[in-house]
Amino acid sequence: MFYILDEKTRNISSIVESYGIDVIVGSVPERFKKRGVAILNNIKDASLMSTQHRVLITTEVDINKLLSTRIPVAQVGTEERYLTPISPLPQEFFMRDAKEVAMELLGKLLVRKISNTLIVGKIVETEAYYGDKDPASRAYRGKKDYNRGMWLPGGHIFVYMVHANWMFNITADGEDAQAVLLRAIEPLAGLEIMRQNRKKEKIKELCSGPGKLSRAFGITSNMNEKMLGDEVMVADAPRENISIVKKHRIGVREDLPEPLRFYIEGNRFVSKK
């Protein structure tokens, strides 16, 4: 994720702290090295494209060149803008087995539109759920009023509450009750809105869990059973060179033999390693 700094409106120290910067490109004080931030004199697209670094640009750069790579870019200044074009995934993406959808959602973008502002985050952790043969699924005891959304075709939103937190799911398959729970997201843009919604300042605390991300993105029960679309969507993103970790689902009394929780190895925004 590249952040372009408007040095007239924000100082570097506040950006490093607020946006969780790993790498700074440009001339900056040496003290940042002591904070674990790598410093580069010149940007080299090839060396950063395949990493998961959050990169702050402090020198002039050709934004159009960055956009052409389809790497997510945000402007940091008096107005935070998400500059990378948004390309929603087609419904066909979700009309497959929940396990496949859950794994391929990793690295994709969850996008929430509020007025003229976009909240954007990279999906870094998911869980797959199935129908009445899955003891951990909301569909385990058959079709009821509270879980009928799981029987909707792939690409619909299924929201339910656990411990006063909304769980944001996306249906999968075309006929069976299947869904993918979004467990954790790496915040990319709209961080100030996320902080207001969560009443938290540290970037790692904003979306590192299913209830947290729902609060940060303003997910409500009104979205239940709606198609992904203008208000909430999942957008395509450049496929990173990521490794996927497979583990058993979290917080379930009885699980299936196959691990159905998936997350990006090494990503610091995952809820639990």
Could you explain the architecture of this structure?
The chain is of the alpha/beta class. The chain has two domains: 2-82, no CATH class; 91-264, Methylpurine-DNA glycosylase (MPG) (3-methyladenine DNA Glycosylase, Chain A). Helix content is 16%, strand content 27%. The chain is built from seven helices and 14 strands. Strands 7, 8, 9, 10, 11, 12, 13 and 14 form an eight-stranded antiparallel sheet that branches. Strands 3-2-4-1-5-6 form a six-stranded mixed sheet. The radius of gyration is 19 Å and the shape is elongated.
Produce the secondary structure layout.
Blueprint: E1 2-5, H1 12-19, E2 23-25, H2 31-34, E3 38-40, H3 45-48, E4 55-57, H4 63-68, E5 73-76, E6 81-82, H5 98-104, E7 109-114, E8 117-129, E9 157-162, E10 165-171, E11 179-189, H6 191-198, H7 210-217, E12 232-235, E13 244-247, E14 261-264
Parallel strand pairs: 1-4, 1-5, 2-3, 2-4
Antiparallel strand pairs: 5-6, 7-8, 7-12, 8-11, 8-14, 9-10, 10-11, 13-14
Helix pairs in contact: 6-7
Concise synopsis of the structure shown:
Strands 7, 8, 9, 10, 11, 12, 13 and 14 form an eight-stranded antiparallel β-sheet that branches. Strands 3-2-4-1-5-6 form a six-stranded mixed β-sheet.
Treating each run of at least 4 consecutive H or I residues as one helix, how many helices? 7
Percent range for helical residues? 10-25%
- Write down the overall geometry: elongated
Report the sheet with the most strands, covering strand number, pairing sense and barrel closure: 8 strands, antiparallel
Low-confidence stretches: none
Order of helices and strands: EHEHEHEHEEHEEEEEHHEEE
Structural class: alpha/beta
How far apart lie the N and C ends?
Answer: 22 Å
Beta-strand content: 25-35%
Please name the fourth-level CATH homologous superfamily of the largest domain: Methylpurine-DNA glycosylase (MPG)
Q: Let me know the number of strands.
A: 14
Which fold name is given in CATH as the topology of the largest domain? 3-methyladenine DNA Glycosylase, Chain A
Q: Which CATH-level-2 architecture of the largest domain?
A: Roll
CATH class of the largest domain: Alpha Beta
Query: For the CA atoms, what is the radius of gyration?
Result: 19 Å
- Overall mean pLDDT stands at 90
For the record, the count of structural domains works out to 2
